[in-house]
Design a protein that fits this description.
This protein has 22 helices and 23 strands. By secondary structure, the protein is α/β, with parallel strands linked by helices. The protein has a seven-stranded antiparallel β-sheet with strand order 20-17-19-18-22-23-21. A six-stranded parallel β-sheet has the order 4-3-2-1-6-5. A five-stranded antiparallel β-sheet has the order 10-11-15-13-14.
Length: 651
């Protein structure tokens, strides 16, 4: 039997100090829950504005039992539970909040959804994993209920709270608690258990993963639920630290195939598949070792959870570098199984072009090593479509000798974005392969576009660096410039370190991706129309060519080797973005999965040419015949059968 207390802020004499003393006493005596009643019953609390109205409305409120006393004392329920959060350490706190979706849009006093959500988030930050806002999570007994009545109410499996206003009543309740030898640290709190999601067998989490598993009610849930760009709400996050623990996590996933399954390395991914809503996430960030295997061959072994900032820092003392996108906070695992179009790519090729072997845990839990000599079919597939075949637990790369490079960040302004794009396309394509420059722009402001250029010249000579970059500075009015000679680690070090608080992304950005065989004047014109709509707030062109095209399209599952540019566009609304994006499709000849959120089957056909896709399906039938890895642009091994439903979009 779990017991708690209920405190009514509308009672005469109610005060924050008195509530604090009773709550601390309940916590010390082993009670489970402190509920602060809302005026008029559960659901009457709006959004925390009662505290603001208290000072101005007290004189106007009649003592009719609907909240007048609370306003007279200035102790509204939200303020009370916030106070208790600061005065207690572990006891669960209950406050029945309304459902914003049910609120009348014509009621000025109705809860405003974003305000309610923000208030809830703030209190959850103050008291992580302790807040309950659904009144169905507990049962309220009448004041003065007998022990027999309390036992009968507790038979339903929910904690029973009893209205109290004295220390003697708290002591009486505490005396009714059953004695138990169970270590309280081995069981999650009531608040944590109340937030568990349906369809997940939390009691069967493997012993090897239980200590590090994170549930929605846990204090560190905020740090693992979202990724860099978007908010998430998974039902369970498993955090393996070894290949054997990854196998245990996949065994658990096989028992929960009705749930979305995300695999996360560092949580940066634009596509958003490293988190989900209500599903399972396998987070391998703990597997972040970096080891030099053979200095003579420049062979290194890297865990999937390492970030490219960490990798560049570790390689710098040797005079080495490994091309890795454009941001040091990206994880190795996601990028090294997709492609890796980065600021060294025109000089040294894609990240996957340096991969020599990968260690993986397959869907059935078996461990394999794939290379040109071992499981060569899987090794081919992993380089461009790895998310469909298993969880990479270690990657072996042959890295490059890279001394200092020129790193440029240029800010320009133009009122003719079409001409600027056309000029950039020509200059970037004609540049020597030691020069890789990316262009970023977005919505116009008062008829002008801000353009940011990010580039690397793989040459330490300042004269050469200036020569390479000067043409780019002429595509608009130069407003800002920073060009430095730095080790590649200096380029990657600009990424912020992610601490225990994790990523704090919100919302659900919509992203579209494409490859351009060339940046033609016609494309520049159509792209200018796209940007003029204001529906795209982020638009990036990544220059390709050079060493990327040196590799045959058939050598890896990444087949778009002849592309001149990779394009990404992001917006806030799926339908609106499709309306302005689709007219540009005639210019494209494929897409890059890492930057695409459209999961419709035709996008898979855009990502892989027909022969490549058919070969991938055959390999999928061999290594994941039951299609466990289906939530990241699924290559269905049996396309004639109905594919598993796409998980609901994040809210």
């Amino acid at each position: 039997m779990e017991l708690g207390i209920s405190l009514d802020p509308s009672e005469p004499g109610a005060s924050a100090d008195a509530f604090g003393k009773l709550a601390r006493q309940a916590e010390e005596r082993g009670l489970t829950l402190v509920v602060v009643e809302t005026p008029g019953g559960p659901g009457r609390l709006t959004d925390g504005r009662d505290a603001v109205r208290a000072d101005t409305s007290a004189a106007k409120q009649p003592p009719d039992g609907t909240g007048a006393h609370a306003l007279e004392t200035g102790l509204d329920p939200w303020t009370a539970v916030t106070w208790l959060a600061g005065r207690t350490e572990s006891i669960a706190l209950g406050l029945a909040l309304p459902q914003p979706a049910q609120a009348s849009q014509k009621d000025a006093g109705a809860p405003y959804p974003t305000v309610v959500a923000k208030a809830h988030e703030s209190l959850d930050t103050l008291a992580p994993g302790r807040l309950l806002t659904d009144a169905s999570a507990w049962v309220t007994a009448p004041r003065g209920a007998s022990q027999e009545e309390l036992s009968a109410l507790a038979a339903g499996g929910k904690p029973v709270v009893v209205p109290v206003d004295s220390a003697q009543e708290v002591e009486w309740l505490a005396a009714l608690l059953p004695t138990t030898s169970e270590n309280p640290g081995t069981r999650r709190s009531l608040a944590a258990r109340a937030r568990r999601r349906p369809g997940i067998d939390y009691e069967s989490i493997p012993d090897s993963l239980a200590a590090g598993a994170v549930e929605p009610g846990d204090g560190d849930y905020r740090g693992v639920s979202s990724n860099y760009l978007r908010g998430g709400a998974p039902g369970l996050v498993l955090r393996p630290g070894t290949p054997d623990e990854v196998a245990d996590a996949l065994a658990y996933a096989r028992r929960h195939t009705h749930l979305p399954l995300g695999v996360r390395s560092a949580g940066h991914g634009v596509s958003g598949r490293s988190t989900n809503k209500g599903g399972l996430v396998i987070d391998v960030r703990r597997m972040n070792s970096i080891e030099v295997l053979d200095p003579g061959q420049r062979l290194v072994r890297i865990g999937p959870g390492a970030t490219w900032k960490q990798v560049s820092t570790a390689l710098h003392p040797y005079g080495w570098a490994l091309g890795s996108g454009d941001y040091g906070g990206v994880g190795v695992g996601g990028l090294a199984t997709a492609g890796g179009i980065g600021l060294l790519s025109r000089a040294h090729g894609l990240t996957i072009d340096h991969l020599r072997a990968v260690e993986m845990v397959l869907a059935d839990g078996s461990r394999v090593r794939a290379s040109a000599e071992e499981h060569s079919d899987l090794f081919w597939a992993v380089r461009g479509a790895g998310a469909n075949f298993g969880v990479g637990t270690a990657f072996e790369f042959k890295v490059d000798e890279v001394t200092e490079v020129g790193h440029a960040e240029l800010g320009l302004i133009t009122d003719d974005i079409g001409q600027a794009l056309a000029d950039f396309g020509r200059i970037a394509s004609e540049a020597p392969r030691d020069t890789t420059v990316f262009l970023v722009t977005g919505r116009p402001r008062q008829g002008y576009w801000n353009i940011q250029l990010y580039g690397v010249v793989d040459n330490p000579d300042p004269g050469v660096i200036v020569e390479r970059l000067t043409p780019f500075a002429q595509i608009g009015m130069l407003a800002q410039q920073q060009v430095v000679v730095t080790p590649y680690a200096g380029v990657m070090s600009k990424a912020a370190d992610v601490g225990p608080e994790g990523h704090q992304g919100v919302g659900d950005p919509v992203s579209r991706s494409a490859f351009l065989p060339e940046l033609t004047p016609e494309f520049a014109r159509d792209a200018a129309r796209l940007l003029s709509t204001g529906q795209v707030y982020f638009f990036e062109l990544r220059a390709m060519g050079g060493a990327i095209a040196d590799v045959s399209p058939e050598e890896t599952a990444f087949a778009h080797r002849s592309s001149a540019f990779q394009l990404t566009a992001m917006g806030g609304d799926e339908q609106a973005l499709n309306q302005v994006w689709d007219p540009l499709r005639r210019h494209f000849h494929g897409l890059y999965l890492s930057f695409e959120t459209d999961l419709r089957p035709e996008r898979l056909r855009d990502a892989f040419p027909p022969a490549t896709l058919e070969r991938l399906r055959g390999i999928k039938r061999c290594y994941d015949p039951r299609n466990l890895f289906r939530d990241n642009f699924n290559i269905n091994p049996n396309p004639g059968e109905q594919a598993a439903p796409v998980p609901a979009p994040l809210s």
